[in-house]
Amino acid sequence: MQRGILLFLCILALGRTAVIYKRCQVTRALNDKLLYDKRLTYLGDYFPKDYKMIVRYEEVLRCQNITSLINQGITVEELRYLWGIVNEDILIKIKEVLPDRHPSFGYITELLKIFKELLLDTITHQTEIIQDIMERLRKPDDTGPRKSVRPKALLDNCFRVLYALYEEECNLCNPSSRLMAL
């Protein structure tokens, strides 16, 4: 009986390790795609200087929003799910305004593929706070407060929150902190 329980716990631990390993591989690929030079090239240099998108307030997800939600008792898994959904929607909006031959079109398409893969491994259980945010995101585009934001700024936020949510579990390295240490 004890051997059976021990075997079950070992299999469970190995399964969890495999899921975390796969999630970290996908997260590292996303981290590499979101490095500053790529964000600057594809969403700064290739867009008109003053180009801004109109997005909902909830679609501007910053580290301070994440900290506030953690203080309200939201788990990291729920925050990862929310972050993934919000940024997938943002990428879809950016892709919709790009012509097929735009230099950033392929970059955005690759990011969307990575987000879809990352979202496969996230939870679906949500607290009331997350459900409320998701409902506001699902409302028609003509409702709710709006912000005018540059596409690069949206992905800058995406990168910072990625780092905050996955740094410890996936051993991410923030290139800017490495440069400051030198």
Automatic annotation (TrEMBL):
**Pfam families, A to Z:** IL34
Superkingdom of origin: Eukaryota
Record's GO cellular component terms: extracellular space
What GO terms describe the biological role, i.e. biological process, of this protein? positive regulation of cell population proliferation; positive regulation of macrophage differentiation; positive regulation of monocyte differentiation
Keywords on record: Signal
UniProt cross-references to InterPro entries, sorted A to Z: IL-34, IL-34_sf
One GO term in the molecular function aspect is: macrophage colony-stimulating factor receptor binding
* Signal peptide (UniProt feature, chain positions): 1-17
Looking up PANTHER family in the UniProt record yields:
INTERLEUKIN-34
Q: What is this protein called?
A: Interleukin-34 isoform X1
Organism whose genome encodes this protein: Xenopus laevis (African clawed frog)
